[in-house]
Amino acid sequence: MIRVTNQGPSDAIGTIISDLIPASLTNVFWTVVPAGQATVTSGNGGFGNNISVTANIPAGAANAIIITVDGLVAANATGTIVNTATATPAEPGIPAVSASASSW
């Protein structure tokens, strides 16, 4: 699961959430659910290892974009699978927007 929030103080408009899921996961599909007043403007879900979502996330802890990722670990996978998502607001805001993405 990936959860993107905006600690503010400005709204994060046009935030691009991206994640290249490791190739050791196969048959990947993902869904997106906004929480609070957050909205998804593109990328409501899909198939494949390349996640790209654009969203508007108002400031405040109750506003979030939640991405659920499902898939299968490849039979030849070894070691630890590490995944990192990024959230990039379209504009930095004044003062700067602090969007964060966490995955688990």
Task: Provide a descriptive summary of the structure in words.
By secondary structure, the protein is an all-beta fold. It is 0% helix and 61% strand. It is built from no helices and nine strands. A five-stranded antiparallel β-sheet has the order 5-3-7-1-9, with no helix packed on it. It has a four-stranded antiparallel β-sheet with strand order 4-6-2-8, with no helix packed on it. The radius of gyration is 14 Å and the shape is elongated. The protein starts with a strand and ends with a strand. The model has no long low-confidence stretch (mean pLDDT 89).
Topology:
Elements: E1 2-6, E2 12-20, E3 25-35, E4 39-42, E5 45-47, E6 50-57, E7 60-73, E8 85-88, E9 99-103
Antiparallel strand pairs: 1-7, 1-9, 2-6, 2-8, 3-5, 3-7, 4-6
